[in-house]
Specification:
The complex is a heterodimer of chains A (349) and B (334). Chain A is mainly α and 349 residues long. Chain A has helices at 37-44, 74-99, 103-127, 146-170, 174-200, 205-208, 214-233, 240-263, 269-272, 274-297, 302-332, 335-348, and strands at residues 5-7, 10-12. Chain A has a two-stranded antiparallel sheet. Chain A is globular, with a radius of gyration of 24 Å. Chain B has helices spanning 3-13, 20-23, 47-56, 107-113, 153-157, 184-187, 209-213, 219-223, 234-250, 296-318, 324-333, and strands spanning 33-38, 82-89, 138-145, 163-165, 171-173, 194-195, 202-203, 229-233, 257-259, 272-276. In chain B, a hairpin with a 6-residue loop joins strand 6 (194-195) and strand 7 (202-203). The chains are: A mainly alpha (349), B alpha+beta (334). At the A-B interface, helix 1, helix 2, helix 4, helix 5 and helix 7 of A face strand 2, helix 5, helix 6, strand 6 and helix 10 of B. Bound molecules: iron/sulfur cluster (SF4) (2 copies). The site of one iron/sulfur cluster has 13 residues of chain B, from helix 5.
């Protein structure tokens, strides 16, 4: 853990909050506990005027975070969010393709879903502190824990996705294969949507405050990814539904991301700055380019369809990594925890 | 569902919940216990930190200087279950004065008297405000700990059932069950629980579950020389705390306030609550923590809506007649 030191070159590792003002900047009007006025004024230089101006300062303990950011690895967990969405929405696309007699697309999507869900499971187990205990996930089923619900969803969905793909590849048990395809398509949306609750059900401001929009953003992103995969891997003659999904998914992703930022309040900044900001902007650009490319050229030229598909897949991945990093940034900076809570208290009176 | 059932369900979710242990399935539960940490008498000796490490065999987690007053522990974490915060403030507390002339003072005579001025006659005590409001420094110390929330987010979100509610109403991790998924870590609104590097599992204060079973008080409370950390039945602690805060207010310490004692707060009241002398965030505590699962019903509703929307979008995309043109064009190229 450490940190500050005096070296020949001067001070190192100084804490940002070390020089911060102590005592809450909002003590006067906003805080629950009012102090005698004169003293306040001396400390803050004009405490009386602070009655009208919303205070800009907030107090913290040496600038340290209030909550603990998750120790999840981005490639594992953000990667899982992407792959899980691709698998879930992909299974719906596979079933749609199968039922409307688009066999090549159906097979490609079944394979993609099986691969994605297998990689998902590997990433999730890899991220555990005790990977050998992964089966403990199925000790209980707790509706209060999205991770528990998700584990059971994956336990149900994974084998179905596997059966659907294997039956298609080998040609064995076609009826059972079709049933598995349809069942996987029933699980798919849940697999794609529950991750919204998974992230939001934490104290991480950027995630929790956006809990109403998060599932929509994630299913939209999942649809974008699945459409991208179908454009990339499916034949031209069969990709019309994928092009439609691409347009719907990219538009919905754009709208949901905006809504999420609006809901996130002060923590919205974390979606606009730094690594998260770059990823979110990249996701928007790639999503729009991919959807436009798919709509204009995706039905005409194979390379264009593939390129648009790759852009859509990348857009979906960028969204997931962007959301992940915004959450980390909002957890690491105490202001996103303290200030909204202060404002809530002030509003409640 | 009857109105009664509904009320019960809501209580389990959010708001005051008087019988936490019974609601968790412990029939015949002993009274709920907790900590009342009165920071106004804390002297920052860190005996609690040491006692906790010793009793619970918590490993060493870094020996370093942080540059944060006398706090070289930093924060609560996997291997720090009691953490003493030190805050230096330019703020009057007892009106301490520098360069006071003591030449007239006969210290030996004072010592013979056995004590200094009786408190009732004293012009000022360590906690009375400076006369002109111009005290130079006050040093706040507070021993932080897991709050053993009535509605504990860590427990709610734990997928393995490793975190559980004990018969004493406390929240404990079972180290033989935890698989280190790390979900409890960002769920806790106070940043208490953490995964231990190298071990992988999540660890936090157990409120000395093993000692409670034997009728002993937790190690930190036992070791605290000033009784800043008080252990006991929660109801009793709440009454004691209300009295203490009233006393401090009478003595002119307007800053004194309780934190976490209200069963109506965002976590249904903490099992370990505090008397603070400044805003909670000054000590690194969230001013208005909420258990994240309070919003979980809404999250599930929106997740269901999003899943339905996904299905709907695909249905829309696959509906309608296939356009022959596209196929013909593709066929022509083949
Ligand atoms: S303070 Fe955090 S770790 Fe302790 S019981 Fe509450 S939610 Fe759990
Ligand atoms: S890390 Fe352990 S205690 Fe925490 S939620 Fe996961 S299984 Fe439960």
């Amino acid at each position: 853990m450490s940190e500050a030191g005096v070296t020949r070159e001067g001070l190192t590792g100084r804490r940002p909050g070390r020089e911060a003002r102590f005592g809450n900047g909002m003590n006067g009007p906003a805080g629950r506990h009012r102090r005698p006025e004169g003293r306040e004024g001396e400390r803050r230089g004009g405490g009386a005027r602070a009655e009208v101006v919303p205070p800009a300062a907030f107090a913290s303990y040496y600038g340290r975070p209030v909550i603990k950011p998750p120790s999840w690895e981005a490639p594992d967990i953000a990667g899982y969010l992407f792959l899980g969405g691709l698998a879930g929405a992909g299974s719906v696309l596979a079933a749609g393709a199968e039922l409307t007699r688009r066999p090549a697309t159906a097979r490609a999507m079944k394979l993609s879903s099986l691969t994605a869900v297998s990689l998902s499971a590997a990433a999730l187990i890899h991220d555990l502190g005790r990977p050998e205990r992964f089966l403990h996930m199925l000790r209980v089923l707790k509706p209060t824990s999205p991770m528990s619900v998700g584990s059971w969803l994956l336990a149900g969905y994974g084998p179905l996705a596997g059966a659907a793909a294997l039956s298609d590849l080998t040609g064995l048990l076609p009826r059972a294969g079709r049933a598995a395809t349809c069942a996987a398509a029933a699980f798919g949306p849940a697999v794609a949507a529950y991750t919204g609750a998974l992230l939001s059900d934490t104290a991480v401001p950027a995630w929790h405050e956006g809990h109403r929009a998060m599932p929509y953003l994630f299913t939209a992103s999942a649809a974008t990814a699945a459409a991208g995969m179908a454009l990339l891997a499916g034949p031209l003659a069969e990709n019309r539904p994928a092009r439609r999904v691409a347009a719907l998914g990219a538009a919905a992703e754009l709208a949901a991301a905006r809504t999420l930022r609006r809901q996130a309040g002060r923590a919205a900044e974390t979606y606009e700055r730094g690594a998260a900001g770059r990823l979110m902007r990249l996701a928007e650009g790639l999503g729009l380019a991919g959807a436009a490319g798919a709509a204009l050229l995706g039905g005409r030229a194979r390379p264009a369809a593939a390129l648009a598909g790759a852009a859509l897949l990348a857009a979906s991945a960028c969204t997931r990594f962007g959301v992940f990093h915004a959450g980390l940034a909002s957890a690491r900076d105490p202001q996103y925890t303290v200030r909204p809570q202060r404002e809530r208290l002030a509003a409640a009176g | 569902m009857s109105a009664q059932d509904e009320g019960r369900l809501r209580r389990l979710w959010w708001g005051p919940e008087p019988e936490v242990a019974a609601d968790a399935g412990h029939g015949q539960a002993p009274p709920r216990v907790g900590f009342f940490t009165d920071t106004s008498v804390c002297i920052g000796c860190k005996a609690c930190e040491v006692a906790c490490k010793e009793w619970n065999a918590v490993p060493e987690d870094g020996l370093s200087l942080t540059g944060m007053s006398y706090d070289n522990t930093g924060a609560l974490g996997a291997s720090t279950w009691r953490h003493v915060a030190f805050v230096e403030q330019q703020k009057p507390l007892g009106g301490q004065q520098a360069r006071v002339d003591h030449s007239e003072l006969d210290v030996l005579a004072l010592a013979r008297r056995g004590s200094g001025t009786p408190v009732a006659e004293a012009e000022m005590t360590p906690t009375s405000p400076g006369r002109d409001g111009s005290g130079e420094l006050r040093w706040l110390m507070a021993s932080d700990v897991c709050k053993h929330c009535t509605h504990a987010a860590c427990l709610d979100v734990c997928p393995t059932g490793s975190l559980f509610r004990t018969e004493f109403g406390t929240v404990v991790v079972q180290e033989d069950v935890c698989n280190g998924c790390g979900y409890c870590v960002p769920a806790c609104p106070y940043g208490v629980i953490e995964q231990r590097p190298g071990d992988g599992r999540a660890w936090k204060c157990t409120l000395c579950y093993d000692r409670l079973g034997e009728g002993l008080e937790p190690a930190c409370a036992k070791a605290c020389p000033t009784d800043s950390i008080q252990f006991g039945p929660l109801e009793e602690l709440r009454a004691r705390a209300a009295e203490r805060v009233a006393q401090l207010h009478r003595d002119g310490v307007a800053d004194a306030r309780l934190y976490g004692e209200d069963p109506g707060d965002g976590v249904g009241g903490a099992g370990a609550f505090f008397l603070l002398l400044d805003e909670p965030e000054v000590y690194g505590l969230p001013p208005d923590p909420q258990v994240t699962t309070r919003d979980l019903p809404a999250m599930w509703r929106h997740a269901a809506g999003a899943a339905a929307a996904l299905l709907g979008a695909f249905a829309l995309a696959f509906s309608g007649p296939r356009r022959a043109a596209g196929r013909r064009r593709a066929a022509g190229r083949r």
